[in-house]
Specification:
Radius of gyration: 17 Å
Distance between the termini: 32 Å
Helix content: under 10%
Strand content: over 45%
Number of strands: 15
Number of helices: 1
Length: 197
């Protein structure tokens, strides 16, 4: 699959439109009530931050996200839903408006569950669903063989903003997640530590 990585308008490549049978698709990776525990590596403008990231669903619409250092010291703790963000704790070094806003926006997009489908496409490997929300567009790529979500491309004003890639063996848990910004030097990688059932 070929994707354009620049500030140009995002275009879906090598995919054909198909009749739209799905009205809604879901990202189920954080839908379980179990704790999701990952080794986290963040690169923010050349600064490397690593630690343990725990994501827990605390209601149908809200998740709690806590990041600790490798030694267990809390770095950041917040509750997040599609429309709300409550910061419970942040380490002084991370307490910068820009950092908080990136984390808020990134995790709101990562944890977004329901997507209404506007158009459907397919290529050799994936069924691709386009979801339009205001000026945002989401391209969700589901593997044709496994049916698992393996990529979400988030665009705003038709420009690619964040590329989420997932490696998973089941619908409710991704072993690895890579979140890459297209217009900022920010990259977040998550690697499974515990698997939920």
């Amino acid at each position: 699959m070929l994707l354009i990585f620049s500030c140009k308008t995002y275009q879906l490549k090598d995919a054909e439109p198909i009749s739209n049978s799905e009205k809604e698709v879901e990202n189920l990776y954080f839908s379980s009530n179990e704790d999701y525990v990952y080794k986290c590596q963040m690169e923010v403008y050349g600064n490397d931050i690593s630690g343990i990231l725990i994501i827990k669903k605390i209601s149908e619409t809200t998740h709690r996200v806590v990041m600790t250092s490798d030694f267990g010291n809390k770095m950041i703790d917040f509750e997040i839903s599609e429309n709300d963000f409550k910061l419970n704790y942040v380490l002084a070094d991370l307490d910068k408006k820009m950092v908080i806003n990136f984390l808020k926006n990134d995790f709101q997009e990562l944890l977004k569950r329901n997507f209404s489908v506007s158009e459907s496409f397919e290529n050799n490997d994936s069924k691709i669903y386009l979801s339009n929300v205001d000026k945002k567009q989401y391209f969700l790529f589901f593997d044709k063989n496994s049916g698992l979500l393996n990529q979400v491309i988030y665009t705003k004003n038709k420009r690619e903003k964040i590329n989420f890639t997932f490696e998973a063996k089941k619908h409710t848990f991704a072993q690895t997640i890579n979140l890459q910004h297209k217009d900022f030097k920010i990259n977040i990688k998550l690697f499974q530590i515990t698997e939920t059932e």
